[in-house]
UniProtKB/TrEMBL annotation:
Full protein name: Creatininase
Organism: Koribacter versatilis (strain Ellin345)
Source organism superkingdom: Bacteria
GO biological process: riboflavin biosynthetic process
Signal keyword on record: yes
Signal peptide range in chain numbering: 1-21
InterPro entries (UniProt xref): Creatininase-like_sf, Creatininase/forma_Hydrolase
Length: 293
């Protein structure tokens, strides 16, 4: 009888140990122990994600950190599907177009680039050889490709990939009937209904207008930084009253799956191919005279 109890106890302990060792690793960089971080880096095939948001007004009804909250929700859920290590909260992007609004944090361009470079350098020093920056904010859409291209300026042992704003117009998407919808409109509000419904103040949606005020009439061929303020001086664009939870669920699902696909590609053979090609390129830049013509 005693022996049987011992056998059962040992079996139980072994079983618990096995369960413990198979415990799923957190996708959050900051939640891993140092030894789990090493294991996670292996599981992630040296792939890490850096979701980037911003602090800016989001209409009269959504929080200042909406882009950060939404992009982190999408990136973290994608990482649960396709394991990568996700860097902590990062919101040091380009937002010079909303400095007139309360709560905007707009660091100088020099600092944005320097901080982002030092962040990816430090991530790479810790094993992230394939870094996917995931953008959640329209104002970063020019900055991040420039940053990725600038990585070729000097040799490095890691590759930066940029996953820009998601392409959500896919077959089956519920209609939204919001013709402007560029910032804090029906789409973003619908996303928030899924990611952080507790932070929405839907009773405030009609207290300001998000219509296009069209105050600068220039040919489409010209770009100027004040274009956005000319259209939307209240930093609000769209009609959030058209938001629906169905649209939010559809879009967030599309977004999460698309980021997970990107993680899978970067973790796999083509992610490694990007490193090989970048190394080949850096090798040739040392002595261009030797580059075969
Ligand atoms: Zn936004």
């Amino acid at each position: 009888m005693y022996l049987r109890r011992v056998v059962v106890l040992v079996a139980f302990l072994l079983c618990s140990l096995a369960t413990y060792s198979q415990e799923k690793l957190s996708v959050h960089w900051e939640e891993l122990t140092a030894s789990d971080f090493i294991k996670g880096m292996g599981d992630a095939h040296n792939t890490c994600a850096l979701p980037i948001g911003i602090l800016e007004k989001h209409g009269p009804h959504m929080p200042i950190g909406t882009d950060l909250l939404n992009v982190r929700y999408a990136a973290l859920h994608a990482a649960e599907k396709e394991y990568v290590i996700v860097f902590p909260e990062y919101y040091f992007g380009q937002i010079f177009e909303a400095r007139q609004e309360p709560g905007t944090i707009a660091y100088s361009l020099d600092l944005q680039l320097k901080l982002l470079q030092e962040t990816v350098n430090e991530m790479a020093r810790n094993g992230c050889k394939k870094i996917v920056i995931i953008n959640g904010h329209g104002g970063n859409e020019s900055l991040l490709p420039l940053f990725a291209q600038a990585q070729l300026a000097t040799p490095k042992d890691f590759v930066v990939f940029v996953y820009g704003l998601p392409r959500l117009e896919v077959p089956g998407r519920p209609a939204k009937n919001d013709s402007v919808d560029m910032h804090a409109g029906s789409s973003e509000t619908s996303h928030m209904m899924v990611t952080h419904p507790e932070l929405l103040k839907m009773d405030k949606v009609n207290t300001e207008s998000g219509r296009d005020q069209d105050r600068l009439k220039l040919p489409d061929s010209l770009y100027t930084g004040i274009w956005w303020y000319a259209k939307f001086p209240d930093h609000f664009s769209g009609d959030p009253s058209k938001a629906t939870r169905a649209l939010g669920e559809f879009d967030v699902n599309t977004w999460v799956n698309s980021i997970a696909d990107a993680f899978k590609a970067v973790k796999g053979e083509q992610g490694d191919q990007a490193i090989r090609l970048q190394n080949e390129y850096f090798e040739k830049t040392i002595d261009p005279i030797k580059t075969k013509q």
